[in-house]
Amino acid sequence: MSFEITGELHPPDACHCSMCRKQSGHYWASTDIPRAALTVRGAEHLTWFRSSAKVRRGFCSTCGSFLFWDPIERDSIAVAMGALDGQTGIRLGMHIHVAGKGDYYDIADGLPQKER
């Protein structure tokens, strides 16, 4: 499976909620893009997990990579920064859900932090 994004990437955020930390092994950095900007090749290898009534998470069924965070009622989808090939030309913009961050690390980069 592979995917392509058309258009400009927005600064990603780093989510520190317990669910993202457990699924990614640390915090999860992603950028939101319009759904129409995402093309998935080999979509038969994309598996969706409904993590709540409002969100599903997309995984590669071949390698297990956590690739997408999909808020079902929005016109955008979050794409894992770690899944992008090459240089992106963007930098992390903020930290979210920092109230749920792990106690084993500090956030000391000076970026904005949202509790939820």
UniProtKB/TrEMBL annotation:
Residues 1-106 form the CENP-V/GFA domain. The lineage of its organism: Bacteria, Pseudomonadati, Myxococcota, Polyangia, Nannocystales. This is GFA family protein. Keywords: Lyase, Metal-binding, Zinc. SUPFAM superfamilies: Mss4-like (SSF51316). PANTHER family: CENP-V_GFA DOMAIN-CONTAINING PROTEIN-RELATED, GFA DOMAIN-CONTAINING PROTEIN. The keyword Metal-binding applies. It comes from the Bacteria. It holds the Pfam family GFA. Gene3D superfamilies: glutathione-dependent formaldehyde- activating enzyme (gfa). Coiled coil: none annotated. Belongs to the Gfa family. The keyword Chloroplast does not apply.
